[in-house]
Design brief:
Layout (H helix, E strand, L loop, with lengths): L2 H31 L1 H41 L4 H10 L1 H14 L9 H15 L2 H8 L7 H14 L3 H8 L9 H11 L3
Keywords: Membrane, Transmembrane, Transmembrane helix
Protein name: Tetratricopeptide repeat-like domain-containing protein
Length: about 190
């Protein structure tokens, strides 16, 4: 290497060190300027992480306690302590337990859980052969047993001798439905009516 190349090499090294020091000074100035804000944000972040972890832990413990209480209620429906624990830790699971107890007694309990409420209405309509309630349930787009409600409506109409209305109701059941096989069987029966 010649002397000129050595001088150029040293200049480049000094320039890169100078740029590094310049960057360090800029970072240091930025940190001094926003020190309180940076420390505050880091503190808030740490507190948020701890709070979320504690909340998740408490939720998990409540879930475990609710599941244990639910198991106790299923095993022994008269266990009031387990029912109270369930009521405090998980309202929906408490309603499910009450629903199951009422079903064992042959009652149709009132509940706020959407699917259980719909199932109760469906069972009430079937037991009372209420075509209008089955019709109302089957017209709800998000009803869980929509096609079965339509099929049972058609079955009740057939039993009442209203064959034409039953045929119209059966046409509402789609071929992709689980109730389509039952529907086609009833439609074959209705061909002679």
């Amino acid at each position: 290497m010649s002397m000129k190349e050595n001088v150029d090499f040293v200049k480049e090294e000094l320039n890169s060190e100078e740029k590094f020091l310049e960057g360090t000074v800029k970072v240091e100035r930025f940190f001094k300027k926003f020190k309180a804000l940076i420390i505050g944000l880091v503190t808030i972040l740490i507190i948020a992480v701890v709070a979320i972890s504690v909340k998740n832990y408490n939720d998990e413990q409540n879930s475990i306690a609710a599941n244990i209480a639910f198991d106790k209620v299923i095993a022994n429906p008269s266990d009031k302590e387990a029912l109270n624990t369930l009521k405090e830790s998980n309202k929906k699971l408490y309603e499910v337990a009450l629903y199951l107890q009422a079903k064992k007694e042959g009652k149709y309990p009132d509940t706020e859980i959407t699917y259980l409420k719909e199932l109760t209405q469906y069972q009430k309509a079937l037991s009372s052969s209420d075509v209008s309630l089955l019709n109302t349930l089957s017209m709800q787009n998000d009803f869980l047993l929509k096609e079965f409600a339509i099929f049972n409506k058609a079955l009740i109409l057939v039993n009442e001798g209203k064959y034409q209305e039953a045929k119209v109701a059966l046409n509402l059941i789609q071929n992709s439905s689980k109730a389509s096989e039952l529907s086609s069987l009833l439609q074959h029966y209705l061909l002679t009516k």
